[in-house]
Amino acid sequence: MIIEQLESPLPGSLLRTLPGSAYTDPEVFAQEQEKIFEQMWFCAVRSSDVAKPGAFKTIQVGREAIIVSRNRKGEARAFFNVCRHRGMQVCQGENAEGQRTFQCGYHAWTYDLDGKLIAAPNLTKMPDIDRDDYGLRQVAVREWLGYVWVCVAENPPSFEDTVLTEVVDRLGTVSNLDHYAVDTLAVGKRIVYDVKSNWKLIVENFMECYHCATIHPELTEVLPEFADGLAAQVFVNHGAAFGEDIKGFTVDGSEGFDLLPGVTADQARKYYAITIKPQVFINMVPDHIIFHRMYPISADRTIVECDWLYAPSVVESGADLTASVELFHRVNSQDFEACEQTQPSMSSRLYRDGGVLVPAEHHISGFHEWHQSMLAK
Amino acid sequence: MRICSLAELARGEALRFDGVSPPIAVFHTEDGQVFAIDDTCTHQDASLADGWVEGCEVECPLHASRFDLRTGAVDAPPAKRGVRSHSVTLQDGEIHVTLSEDVPALPPGVSY
Questions:
Q1: Which of A182, A199, A234, A341 has the largest count of CB atoms under 10 Å?
Q2: Rounded distance, CA A157 to CA A165, Å?
Q3: How far is A144 from chain B (nearest CA, A)?
């Protein structure tokens, strides 16, 4: 229903985008939840947000409510937040710490931190109930880059073939990301943006830099090559170089912090960016990482949680992060404002067949083809 | 009465032994002590062997009353009565329990 247009590209410079309805239709959004977000690996929470045994956070993945937690041994765990008895959500609230069990508030069915059913009123009188079979249903988990990733699919795809392959496609090798040791960094700042736009507009925005010189004056000052409109994400392992008089990745080009320990000479004055479909953006600069996670809420609303990650010594020192954080906070605000001002047009008659991509944006059609293929499954 | 060998019950673990009536719970604490008390919470039918052990106390998994593993005494409602404690001896690496002769305190509606 969506993208017949892609098969008949416009002559010359332009390619079609998705039609407007792909960004507004609740039915398309429902299909995306089922066929994209409930099938793929989803970057759920920062590991330090569930640091200790018994900590949990509740999140939404597609249509599913999920508990992300840590067991008594300190291993990350994730479960469907559905009591196996009569279905009440077992964990209420967004997060808590120090839980010894997960206990449903309805009939007190009680699960241990590995999800096993350990107690319920009169359970000892029902010895035929298998405590593993009636445990909280587990969700696949993987800790990587200091985040807990989950996959709610019955048969999760290989993490290597999906998530890591996206990194290889962009950076050539995973080791080019490993140099930043993202898992060892500390959250210096987190800003949560409530964006009134479809999640795909945010992905498309992040993938191209044709808009950079227009809406990102501060960023283009730091990364002058962005003025030519070609994004760091068009090429393989292409970092955008800092301008000559730029001392650091800060809002005014002033000095940043010490290089992260593993950063190579080639990475020392460059910005790199990766999109890990469907909901993660990673921005790498020499002294910190800016890590975005998107939580699509509806066809026209997306929560974006953005972490600024620094060496733990920088965060512990109480150093002033303002100039450092402010640069990408402005970029985020500028981008999300553009997305919000684009969203209303998605339902315009004028946009029924979509818009167009110029050559500097042609790689976005790869995202559209991926989207089409996922929904066709 | 032999329960099991000490090697079968790791530190931090507990087991429900239902070879007696009412069943008992045997605990091997993190610091290496072994205790036995009645397994059934006196408030509602729940197995204390599935509870959370900290120090010499076990917290009932259902409603969090805590029982002293040494005496069976309860700290706070909703359970109001303690459980029986049983004497434990270790012989050649085997856990043996001698049952208390007191009358067990069972929750309403539960009988063995």
A1: A199
A2: 12
A3: 30
Contact A125 B23 (CB under 8 A): no
Strand partners, A296: A302
pLDDT at A3 (0 to 100): 47
Contact B72, B79 (CB under 8 A): no
pLDDT at A43: 98
CATH, residue B18 = 2.102.10.10
ipTM: 0.76
Residue B46 lies in a domain: yes
- Tokens for A111? 């699960």
Q: Which residues of B22-35 are buried (b: 16+ CB within 10 A; e: fewer)?
A: bbbbbbbbeeeebb
pLDDT tens digits, A80-133: 999 999 999 999 999 999 999 999 999 999 999 999 999 999 888 898 999 999
Q: From residue B59, give the alpha-carbon distance in Å to each of A62, A133, B44, B53, B54.
A: 36, 24, 13, 6, 8
| Residue A285 β-bridge partners | A288
- B50: chain A residues, CB-CB within 8 Å: 110, 112, 118-119
The distance of B98 to chain A (nearest Cα, Å) reads 23
CA A265 – CA A173 distance, rounded (Å): 16
pLDDT tens across A47-93, in order?
Answer: 999 999 999 999 999 999 999 999 989 999 999 999 999 999 999 99
- DSSP label of B74: B
What residue in B sits closest to A102 (Cα-Cα)?
Answer: B61
Name A9's Cβ contacts closer than 8 Å, sequence gap at least 6: A15, A16
Going from the N-terminus, what domains does chain A have, and what CATH number goes with each?
4-40+161-376 (3.90.380.10), 42-156 (2.102.10.10)
B73 part of contact set with chain A, CB < 8 Å: no
Number of structural domains in chain B: 1
Residue B112 domain-assigned (yes or no): no
> CB burial class (10 A; 0-12, 13-18, 19+) of residue A227?
middle
